[in-house]
From TrEMBL:
Cell location: Cell membrane; Membrane
UniProt-recorded name of the protein: Transport permease protein
Stored InterPro entries: ABC2_TM (IPR013525), ABC2_TM_bact-type (IPR047817), ABC_2_transport (IPR000412), Nod_factor_ABC_transporter (IPR051784)
Record keyword Phosphoprotein present: no
Its membrane topology: Multi-pass membrane protein
Keywords: Antibiotic resistance, Cell membrane, Membrane, Transmembrane, Transmembrane helix, Transport
Residues covered by the ABC transmembrane type-2 domain: 24-253
PROSITE patterns found in the cross-reference section: ABC_TM2
Protein family (similarity comment): Belongs to the ABC-2 integral membrane protein family.
Amino acid sequence: MTAAVLQSYHMTVRDLRAFIRQPFYLVATLVQPVIWLLLFGKLFAPLMEDTHTTDSYIGFLTPGIIAMTALFASGWSGMVFVVEMEQGTLNRFLVTPVRRGALITGRLIHQALSVVLQGLIILAIALATGARFPGGVPIMVVFLVCVALIAVAFASLSNALGLVTRSQESVISIAQFLVLPLAFLSSTFVPRRVMPDWMSTIAGGNPVNWLVEIGRQTLDDSVDWSFVATHGAGLLAVALGCAWLSTLAFRVYQKQA
């Protein structure tokens, strides 16, 4: 157990070092969500606030933008496995004593940490533009933990796709195909009560919407912790299930390598 934890740590550090060497990647992945936050926030704020749909649309939009950022960023995770397969790096790892689980866990931890960092930057931008989150620090921390869970879930699916298809194009196309429906079939841009009935029904079972609604608890003075616990447990279950699929995909790759 100690060896597995230590090896996972080293694999995480390896990926983080690569991340630090490419600061442009962090900037590039933040350009789109910042545009959404500032442009959509300013464009629709008068409509949403004048109709009393929400008091502060920038604050309302922020959790959804963070959720979308986590989806887009983690959707590229499988690309790394594809590149390492093409370069032969992954096969070289397979002949070392490193545990196979550590190869996956290290990448997932790295992905979770990177999306939390991106989430913090988006929160800082939202605060600078006038958004306020009266729910307090505890619910904000819980929200960021849930952001990490959705990142682990989607990164696991992306990793599984990369290991099974061994194609960068397949990872990109399937990830994009999943991200937009999950984002738009949620309350990212508008509350569920103003959505069409069929969309609201789908959003009720959408893990991305669970994350967004947990984030919306930061906008209330009184946090509904039972709601947060229920939906947070759902996100944890989804993350564990997707991680298990990623492990199965790695075993398939090992048999074919």
